[in-house]
Amino acid sequence: MKNLLNDIILQKISKKIMKKILICVMLLLLFVQCKKKEELKLLAPHRTFIENITEENNSFYAVAKPGDPKQKKGLAIGVFDSGIGGLTVFDAIVNADFYNSANENRPDGIKDFEQEQFIYLADQANMPYSNYVEEGKKDLLVEHVLKDALFLLNKKYHVSAGSPEVAADKPTIKAMVIACNTATAYGKPQVEELCRVSGSGIKVIGVIDAGCKGALEIIEKGKNATIAVLATPATVGSMAYVNTLNELKKDRPETIRIIQQGGKGLHESIDNKPEFISRKYTKPCQAYQGPSLFNEHYRIQKDLLPWYNFDTTNYQILYNRGTLDLSDTIEINSVENYARYHVVSLVEQLKAGKDTVPLKAIILGCTHYPYASATISSVLRELKQTARYGYLLADSVFLIDPALNTAKELYSYLSEQDMFNEKGQNRMQKSRFFLTVPNPFEPEVERNQDGRFTYEYQYRKRTINQLKDFTLIVPFSRELISGEQMGMIQTRLPFTYELLKNDMKLKD
């Protein structure tokens, strides 16, 4: 009887204990779920995608486990952009010589990042990013940016554009640079949240703050001036530069006016996007999407033709009648003429203002635009000599490339965190370069004759959280980069060209 009583008591105690344990487990699960929901704030629209890549599975973008913190110094530095334009930022970083070996702010003839390896990604298949905003697909743009970041965080890549085979020997990274203004404006906070919830703890550096600081540095105290932002339409629409400039200049006494010009087609022409430029075209093209006589936001004005001063040779301007004045269709078909159109449009906007605060600086708010800096400077000099615009321009108008200040910010971070690689190791020569191509092995993907996504599929049909690989991420190769693009890189960015050539194993 006594034993039976003990058994009953033990059973009751066990039930109570089990009940408490069960309650604790349920509370723990509830806490975890709440924490998970709390963690996904900016990433909430992408919950399906994020939950998929944070689970242990075979997803190409599955988050890699954080490495040994002790080994972090030896990791690479990741840089990504929507195309090859970000190589201007990359080039500024790898050529930087602002500091000496004692971390003093003076050059010493030794590249600041000489001992660092870099991983560069050009999301060529999904560019231009600006159009996602224009098509009402901001969330899809953000998901592309998240995938760019995940690629840099992980080790995987596809071996070639013609194979679904995946390799997993890419170095991981210790810091990330978003070398794209549109991606910075719309996706940097989400990438920072991704790095937090994934446990990587990677520092993310964007280009917008750097550009604003650079512009304000050249304006003398007490002198009124205008700062112009020449950027993609999406970056202009985000107001990221305007908001940052206003915040940084709020304690300055002088009048600093800010204007913006969306560079529709300039970025795309540098990347040879056929809706904006093609050397094959000899007459107006129906698929053209750049500035025109009828484009509501980017209209070519016939009364401004003398100031545009377009180069009409070699089909750099396409028109349908004997002269530009007589034509009812005009299409821009060269990088130089896109630059001419946008510089004149920018200064015309300044002219339309109520005051005449002279233009002192233009922030090149797209990583592609430094490729056109020579033309931009040339047009400014031409306009300075005219009665129509001369009084609106300072004697020297500075072109601000955010890349230089981005390099300084990266250096400061690595120095403060003691994360520079060991001296004496020239790991820069081992830098790797990758780009995206449409995935020919995904049945849903729609491509045109030149192998690119169709516009309809790229910007309108695709949605977020589909858990499909629309693209392959492959090493740079001559088959994927045009001779014209390689020539531009070689001329404009010779050191980067040598690193790229070394990675592609090209011979002179």
Distance between the termini: 97 Å
User: How many separate helices?
Assistant: 17
Low-confidence stretches: 27-38
Major beta sheet summary: 6 strands, mixed
- Count of strand segments: 14
Specify the overall morphology: globular
* Approximate strand percentage: 5-15%
Helix content: 25-40%
Radius of gyration: 26 Å
CATH level-3 fold name of the largest domain: Rossmann fold
Summarize model confidence as the mean pLDDT.
91
Classify the secondary structure makeup into a structural class.
alpha/beta
Number of domains: 2
CATH class of the largest domain: Alpha Beta
Main sheet: which strands, in order across? 6-5-1-2-13-14
> Architecture of the largest domain, CATH level 2?
3-Layer(aba) Sandwich
General description of the model:
The chain is an alpha/beta fold and 508 residues long. The protein contains 17 helices and 14 strands. It has 2 domains: 264 residues, Rossmann fold (3-Layer(aba) Sandwich); 192 residues, Rossmann fold (3-Layer(aba) Sandwich), CATH 3.40.50. The chain is 39% helix and 15% strand. It has a 6-stranded mixed β-sheet with strand order 6-5-1-2-13-14, with helices on both faces. The longest helix is centred in the N-terminal third of the chain and has 38 residues. The protein starts with a helix and ends with a helix. The relative contact order is 0.15. About 2% of the residues have low confidence.
